[in-house]
Amino acid sequence: MKYIILGTAGHIDHGKSSLVKALTGTDPDRLKEEKERGITLDLGFASLDLPGGNRLGIVDVPGHEGLIKNMLAGVGGIDIVMLVIAADEGIMPQTREHLAICDLLHVKKGLIVLTKTDAVDKDWLTLVQDEVRDFVKGTFLEKSPIAAVSSKTGENLPGLIQELAKLSNEVSPKSSSGILRLPIDRVFTMKGFGTVITGTLLSGTISTEQEVEILPKTIRTKVRGIQSHNKAVTRSVAGQRTAVNLQNVEKDQLSRGDIIVSAGFFTPTKTLDAQLGLLKQAPRGLKTGARIRFYNATQEAIGRITILGQNQLDPGQEAFVQLRLEQPVIVQNGDRFILRFYSPMETLGGGMVLNPHPRRHKHATMQESQKNLGILEKGDLEARIGLLVALKGLAGMEENGIIASIAADKQDVASALTSLAQKKHLLRVDNLYVHTSHLAGLEKKTLDMVKQYHQDNPLKPGLDKEELKSALRMRLSPKVLNLTIDGLVKRKQLEAEGSKLRVPGFKAARGSVNDEVKNRIVEAIKTGGSQPPVREELPGLFGITEKDAKDLMKLLADEGRTVRINDSLHLDREILEKVREDLKKHLTEKKEITMAEFRDLAKTSRKYAVPIMEYFDSQKLTQRIGDKRVLRG
User: Is 204 helix (H, G, I), strand (E, B) or coil?
Assistant: First the structure.
């Protein structure tokens, strides 16, 4: 059995809901107001078992011009569209808009149904059929069948069901090996069960007791129960209309537009790169900076658009764009979307998401950006994955992040990653992937920084790895840096001793300071207690240069023989620890201390008391409030 989603489309009062009821026996108009007014206001749902064994999940959408946003929430996951046109009215404004939306969403299969045939004669029906055939030329419905039916009398409904069965056989089943994505279109409470959501399962599977994540609300929960087509099941697969009973989640925590996903994969985004095409019949063009409404699956967000490489897009034109949204969305490379003007709310076009987590594009590199977006639009899976990883630089991408960025099966993504690693395009470190094009630059920069460090710090044995990472000033995974260092050491371009890095053959210079002088300085700092000699006093006391004094203070702190309070002042570790304990005892008993009181407590002068107290502030021991210090909570 294949599970297929059919969506209705068409103008208000053209008989969509009546047709669904006639086919299935289920009235999709569930709201009291819908029944009272006789029009569809929100999404309705039904199911139909077809000859041959396939099952249709039917999403009935409203046809009113002011309810397009509700219509868009229903058509995001459909496989087949049933364009409904009343024979007594013919083509109307929302007939055109709904067809354009389905075209923009790349719906591949569909058929046209002329309803209310009991209200017209055969000659009129023939004229309407000819008009409709001309209307759909150039669209995906150009060669689709036209079924003329009457929901009132039942005329030709069996024939329509046969056409639907044929179409269902042509639809490729959705893969259940993809990552779970279930956009929420309804949220309600069932007595005795709690919160229930419904939606069309776009990809993957969902099972009872499965841990899931609800984004962008970042709620983690478990699945208590599942229904599909009004039957309790333990597992639902891609392509099915699905109702999910969630544990420990309140109804008012969720809303249409939220999405249930596999836990730990997706990161919501407010910025995305995309390919956009404007409708030829769009009411006007679009300029960079214009406010827009973005629709994908059941998600809606307001934002602004930047057209890359130009300032304006006219009806019928295409371009690469960057969207900056005010609300977070969850999208993948390959997802289709619709854009509408912010006000008045008119459909302007649609396109495909290319990069769900891009950086801002610079004018100087715009040509390169457009070339990359071309690859993300039309490249094969390996090319798109390789580029997405390359664009992350040395920060790389975790495997789960790659899977979540591309609308493809997990197995296909895993195979592509293995191939790219075998071809040496990607480097794998645990579950992190980095494009190898960035590694040569990192190696050179690492070597250059170690060499420069030796020049600047001749007394030190080498550059600490953590200091190197900080000095590189780039988004960089520690795993990648460690692997780079290991490679340089293996090729004997670097030597490592503990956490220190040096070039082969380097030895720390002794300068004018021998070990005897170093020991004398350490002893002077210890003997000085809380008033030791400061760096500026060392040349006069020990006959060394100012540079030697500066280098020596750094070296003594690195070796752990002194504790750096600031560049000028170092203390003996035992002395500092005693001052710390005395201070903690005082603050525990008396709650606060002034600088004068601390000066006396530490048996020092203000010259030393101020930097020592600031050191304790920096160590999160104390907190300044006015002119007093208290213990930091």
Answer: coil
Tell me how far apart the alpha carbons of residues 205 and 260 are, in angstroms, rounded to a whole number. Answer: 11
**pLDDT value of residue 511:** 54
Show the beta-strand stretches assigned E in 297-335: 299-307, 312-313, 318-329
- Both 276 and 358 in one domain: the answer is yes
| 175 found inside a domain | no
- Orientation of helix 546-558 relative to helix 515-527, angle to 10°: 70
Boundary residue ending a domain (455, 483, 509): 509
- Tokens of residue 241, six digits: 């209309």
Shared domain for 99 and 147, answered yes or no, is: yes
Whether residues 284 and 389 share a domain: the answer is no
Read off the DSSP letter of residue 86.
Answer: E
Judged by DSSP in three states, 561 sits in: coil
- The answer on 108 and 9 residing in a single domain is yes
CATH no. for residue 443? 1.10.10.10
Cβ 242 vs Cβ 198: under 8 Å: yes
Q: Are 238 and 179 in contact (CB under 8 A)?
A: no
- pLDDT, tens digit (0-9, with 9 covering 90-100), for 76-119: 788 999 999 999 999 999 899 999 999 999 999 999 999 999 99
CA distances from 394 to 340, 366, 520 (A): 37, 21, 46
15 and 158 together in one domain: yes
Same domain, yes or no: 255 and 275: no
Which residues, in sequence order, are CB contacts of 85 under 8 Å at separation 6+?
Answer: 10, 11, 14, 91, 92, 95, 112, 113, 114, 115, 128, 132
- What pLDDT sits at residue 231? 87
The answer on 164 and 17 residing in a single domain is: yes
CATH code (residue 130)? 3.40.50.300
372 found inside a domain: no
Is residue 373 in a domain? no
Q: Quick one: average pLDDT of 208-222? A: 96
Q: Locate tokens 């078992």: which residue?
A: 49
d(CA 313, CA 93): 24
Tell me the CATH number at 356.
2.40.30.10
Retrieve residue 32's tokens: 């009291």
Residue/partner pairs of 533-538 with CB below 8 Å, 24 or more apart: 534/568, 534/569, 535/567, 535/568, 535/569, 535/570, 536/568
Cα 191 from Cα 194, distance rounded (Å) = 6
For 572-594, how does the pLDDT look when each residue is reduced to its tens digit (9 = 90+)?
999 999 999 999 999 999 999 99
Looking at the 3D structure of the chain, how many domains does it have?
Answer: 5
Q: 3-class DSSP state for residue 336? A: strand
Note the helical H segments in 323-433. Answer: 366-378, 381-390, 399-405, 410-422
**Rounded to 5 degrees, what angle do the CA atoms 396, 401, 402 make?**
80
Is residue 303 within 8 A of residue 290, CB to CB? The reply is no
Cβ partners under 8 Å of residue 470, min gap 6: none
What is the chain's mean pLDDT, rounded? 90
**Domain edge (last residue) among 170, 191, 226:** 170
Could you list the residue range(s) of the whole structural domain that residue 244 is in? 181-262
Q: Per-residue confidence at 34, pLDDT binned at 50, 70, 90?
A: very low
